[in-house]
Amino acid sequence: MTTTVPRVFAFHEFAGVAEAVADHVVHAQNLALSKEPYSLKNTGGSNSTPANSSSLNVPGSNGTGNAPVSRQSSSRSIGHSHSAAASGLRGPSSSKLKKIKEKQFKIALSGGSLIQVLHEGLLKRQDVLWGKWDIYFADERLVPFESSESNFGNTKRKILDLIDTRTYGTPRVYHINESLINDPQECADDYEKELIKGFAGRDSVKLPMFDLFLLGCAPDGHIASLFPNFSENLRENLAWVVPVTNAPSGPSNRISLTIPVICHSHQVTFVVEGATKAPVVKTIMERPEKGLPSSIVNEGAAGRVAWFVDDDALTDVQVTKKKYKFLVNTDASQISPSPPVPE
Ligand SMILES: O=C1O[C@H](COP(=O)(O)O)[C@@H](O)[C@H](O)[C@H]1O
């Protein structure tokens, strides 16, 4: 492994992380909805692009062949037309609005602490075109959605249920099939079919390509539900989604999108905060040869990776810190107070 240094944006406090991450997400949204072909120009980062999806194979339900996809989508999409102009989005001219209508912003969300960051950063903004979002999950813990450990459940309670959908539209949300939580392999295969339907379209593709893949990183080094030393999962290069059993922390049964899927995204962004994360961040940044999952992604998606980290998580970490420059031109009057979180 070569030493690849990602962009690391440092922040004095949590609130700063939340606002910067929101700006970064909205910028990715605007790029995805307005640019054809997709370009990373002006993102403040590298202009390298993901590997080309020239191969026309999709993984089958077992991750090894071409399987027919027949199950109806489990996504919830309550159609709601939404005007970009009314939303406060700035930038796209009227000639581009037709294109915008046809496109969706495809984002993968992790669970854990990221959800609170997005809650604080995104809900108060008026330029989030929620109705144009296709939301997938980087991983899921196989627990009922009502559990406080469910990534989809928490996202629903802390973000999705709080969106003013009459104004901003309703995102399409692609979550696991809750009836399969007792069968990790079946659940992973089923979620992979969801991805194939969402990304393969009429043709088929080698890998899905998210506009933005948001990741956290736990103190033990796991990202999504890819754990250090689970080498079979970390090396998986056919399946898009893998089952995880015997996870060493949190719920033991999970499913996770794989490293090739993560690395194929247009942008991969880590959001990490808190002093408990400092040791693992140090290892990731200073000892990439240890092969922690984040280091694999730093290398595999080199030039498209950004880290948003608070100072506590960067304690004693030798890395070049950058100051985040806000990219979306939003004046303060467009930001409304965050809605209350239901108990
Ligand atoms: O178990 C999980 O943990 C990771 C990291 O969570 P954090 O709270 O330490 O940020 C999370 O990204 C993943 O989605 C989740 O299932």
Automatic annotation (TrEMBL):
Keyword Transferase: no
Matching InterPro entries: 6-phosphogluconolactonase_DevB, 6PGL, Glc/Gal-6P_isomerase, NagB/RpiA_transferase-like
GO MF term list: 6-phosphogluconolactonase activity
Polar residues bias locations: 40-69
Localization per record: Cytoplasm
Location of the Glucosamine/galactosamine-6-phosphate isomerase domain: 101-307
Top-level taxon of the source organism: Eukaryota
Ranges of Low complexity composition bias in the record: 70-95
One GO term of the biological process aspect: pentose-phosphate shunt
Record CDD domains: 6PGL
Cross-referenced SUPFAM superfamilies: NagB/RpiA/CoA transferase-like
GO cellular component term of the entry, any: cytoplasm
Annotated segments matching region Disordered: 38-95
Keywords: Cytoplasm, Phosphoprotein
Recorded family membership: Belongs to the glucosamine/galactosamine-6-phosphate isomerase family. 6-phosphogluconolactonase subfamily.
UniProt function note: May be involved in regulation of tRNA subcellular distribution.
Name of this protein: LAQU0S09e03510g1_1
Species this protein is from: Lachancea quebecensis
